[in-house]
Design brief:
Elements lengths: L2 H14 L15 H16 L13 H4 L11 H5 L1 H6 E5 L6 E6 L3 H18 L4 H17 L1 H12 L3 H27 L2 E3 L8 E9 L2 E5 L7 H12 L3 E6 L4 H18 L6 E5 L2 H10 L2 E5 L2 H14 L2 E5 L4 E5 L5 H13 L9 E7 L3 H12 L26 H14 L3 E4 L24 E5 L12 H4 L6 E7 L2 H9 L3 E2 L3 E3 L2 H8 L8 E2 L4 H4 L8 E2 L2 E2 L4 H7 L1 E9 L20 H13 L3 H29 L1
Parallel strand pairs: 5-6, 5-8, 6-7, 8-9, 10-11, 10-16, 11-14, 13-14, 16-17
Antiparallel strand pairs: 1-2, 3-4, 4-20, 9-19, 12-13, 15-18
Helix pairs in contact: 6-12, 7-9, 7-11, 8-9, 8-11, 9-10, 12-13, 14-15, 22-23
């Protein structure tokens, strides 16, 4: 691989040499057979893939149907039964309101037993080679690709999203994460050399990363497949076991995903209890937090604070990836014809139920009218319906919200904004079948239309800045657009928010980089949307009320491990020996001697070092004189 850059550099020098200077390029570097062979090797390397076992898991008939027969839901009395509520998770299709069945709640005692079994499995897995761990990830990736339709279908039913949104949110991110870990993961977990410092120049220092044991994760419902596979990949590559509490709103899909994972573990020869999924409510999550070695929580800020409070009781380390209210900035000169489609996807993907979904759109005044016209024209004609519609699952641009009562919650935010002077370009009206508040419970389809809200005068009307639409995480299909004139106004609006997860900015590269560096956020995508998550080498996490810690990238991978600092002798013949003057009982010149050592290594001038050396020699001379005197006296 080194031949190509050398050859190209030689050719460039021969062409661009000043004054007609001729630079000799070895003829063998220009040999056609040589380059033919190099290209053939590169092609073969690209085409080569290690053998990866196939895994086959079929969908149940009820999972495979676009429009399965309706299952009778529990009665109102059964749903209200407090004992049943604690032991059963009822599952509903958010797009149709159909009852999907029930899953059993994992009790705290069962969680502790699951963690115990995972710990035994991890002790075995920690001894596995990186080759075996990579093979497990390859099997998971092949399984994901070959079950793509089934994975997306199950996700679409359980989280109300169209098949395309499922493919974009569930599959590509999972496959990219596995690919990065397979290619680079072992290298980032290898011991890393560090400087031993000035005084320890005869030492060598390095950092090691060792598996923690059993990792815990509490994950949300918006992408039920990826949210499970994401923490699994980093955990197993780093030699850990993991127990994941899936959301009660994604319990139905976890049944199929658990079958896939279990089959992949068998195919890789991994312990059966290495990866486990549990279902339940708060008590299930609390038990997992108490017993795991590190907890990653992805969800709302409100619940994240409760997890952190509970983790403090057992001193369990936590990573909190909480709410987001990401800005999307359009600087002057942005080409809206190519950017507006990305802007719409950033807000309406999966009905806006994305932690890094764009919610606050900051649009320069020169682009305002054009942006409003283009975005509004598309939003008004977007098609919204159940994604699995029995018609080839086509003709749907946006699906449903997942949580009961969400449509009404979002409408309250919109109504408050309109009352304060906001205008609507699209949407903003509660669907007719949600007008009755009694219908907000389980079994009612939750749809809210693609909505664009304009706050063009927010800078001159400070009261608007306290609107819930700007203060709270909407987590729905709503674009709130604000107009700005200067970079200072832009930064004031963008950074005046309690959330700081991700950010996106469009415009001239230099201008975008300059303004982007001043945005308060854990991540920044320049001239694109959310690309920081597709670059799996990067850490994922935010600031302020968006949480702390990282669960992706190098930092996230290493965070799955304990960190051990190591110092050893650089040469076996140069061992550290305690100087006699500081050995017990301490010599009278011990302190002057040590002070001289400090000056010799850390003085900021040559004169200071010389003075320290002189003092050191004085101490040594005095020590030697006293030692000789004592010897003669004893003699």
């Amino acid at each position: 691989m080194l031949l190509l850059p050398l050859s190209l550099a030689g050719l460039a020098l021969s062409v661009w040499a000043p004054g007609g200077l001729t630079l000799a390029v070895p003829t063998w570097l220009l040999s056609a057979p040589l380059w033919g062979g190099v290209l053939l090797l590169l092609l073969l390397r690209c085409l080569y893939h290690p053998s990866v076992p196939a895994v086959r898991i079929a969908l149940e008939p009820s999972e495979a149907c676009d429009m399965p027969p309706r299952m009778a839901p529990p009665s109102a009395k059964e749903l209200a039964d407090p004992v049943r509520k604690q032991s059963t998770v009822d599952c509903w299709d958010p797009a149709t309101g159909h009852y999907l069945g029930a899953e059993r709640v994992c009790s705290p005692d069962e969680v502790k037993e699951r963690v115990r079994r995972a710990r035994a499995a991890q002790q075995e897995w920690a001894k596995s080679s990186f080759d075996q761990r990579r093979q497990l990830l390859r099997i998971l990736s092949r399984c994901t690709l070959e079950h793509a339709d089934a994975i997306c279908r199950v996700s679409a039913r359980d989280s109300g999203k169209p098949m395309l949104d499922a493919a974009m949110g569930e599959l590509i991110t999972t496959l990219e994460k596995n690919a990065w870990l397979i290619s680079e993961g072992e290298g980032w977990l290898a011991p890393e050399s560090r400087s031993p410092g000035r005084m320890f120049f005869l030492k060598k220092a390095w950092v090691e990363w060792h598996p923690r044991g059993v990792l815990g994760a509490i994950v949300p419902w918006n992408y039920p497949f990826h949210n499970v596979l994401n923490p699994i990949a980093a955990a197993v590559l780093s030699g850990n076991a993991i127990v994941i509490k899936v959301s009660e709103h994604a319990a139905w899909s976890s049944r199929f995903y658990s079958k896939l994972i279990d089959a992949c573990l068998v195919a890789a020869g991994a312990p059966a209890d290495l990866v486990q999924l549990v279902t339940g409510y708060a008590a299930t999550g609390e038990a997992l937090t108490e017993t795991c070695d590190k907890m990653t929580f992805v969800g709302s800020t409100k619940v994240g604070k409760l997890v952190m409070k509970h983790a403090a009781e057992s001193l369990t380390e936590v990573v909190l990836e909480l709410g987001g209210k990401d800005p999307l900035v359009l600087l002057p000169g942005t080409h809206l014809s190519s950017v507006v489609p990305t802007c719409l996807r950033a807000a309406f993907q999966s009905s806006g139920q994305n932690c890094i979904g764009a919610e606050r759109y900051l649009v320069h005044a020169s682009l305002w009218d054009d942006f409003v016209a283009r975005a509004g024209a598309v939003a008004r004609v977007m098609r919204q319906a159940p994604p699995l519609n029995g018609e080839g699952n086509t003709g749907v641009d946006m699906g449903a919200l997942v949580l009961p009562g969400e449509a009404r919650r979002i409408q309250k935010l919109i109504d408050e904004a309109v009352s304060a002077g906001a205008t609507l370009v699209a949407g903003g009206v509660l669907p007719a079948d949600h007008t009755d508040q009694a219908k907000d419970g389980p079994g009612v389809p939750q749809f809210y239309p693609p909505t664009i809200v304009l706050l063009p005068s927010i800078l001159s009307e400070p009261s608007q800045r306290n609107l819930g639409l700007l203060r709270d995480e909407v987590f729905g299909p709503v674009i709130t657009a604000m107009r700005f004139e200067t970079d200072e106004e832009l930064l004031d609006l963008a950074n005046g928010c309690d959330f700081a997860l991700g950010s996106n900015i469009f415009g001239d590269d230099a201008h975008a980089a300059r303004v982007g560096s001043q945005l308060q956020a854990g991540m920044l995508a320049c001239n694109d949307y959310a690309t920081t998550y597709m670059c799996q080498s990067l850490p994922f996490g935010g600031l302020k009320q968006s949480g702390f810690g990282k669960f992706a990238g190098v930092e996230g991978l290493r965070g799955c491990c304990t960190t051990k600092s190591v110092v050893a002798d650089r040469f076996s013949l140069a061992r550290t020996v305690m100087p006699p003057v500081v050995q017990y009982p301490v010599h009278d010149v011990g302190y002057p001697f040590f002070k001289a050592i400090l000056g010799l290594f850390y003085a900021h001038s040559l004169a200071g070092k010389a003075a320290a050396l002189r003092e050191l020699l004085t101490c040594l001379t005095l020590t030697l004189t006293l030692t000789l005197t004592l010897t003669l006296t004893l003699t």
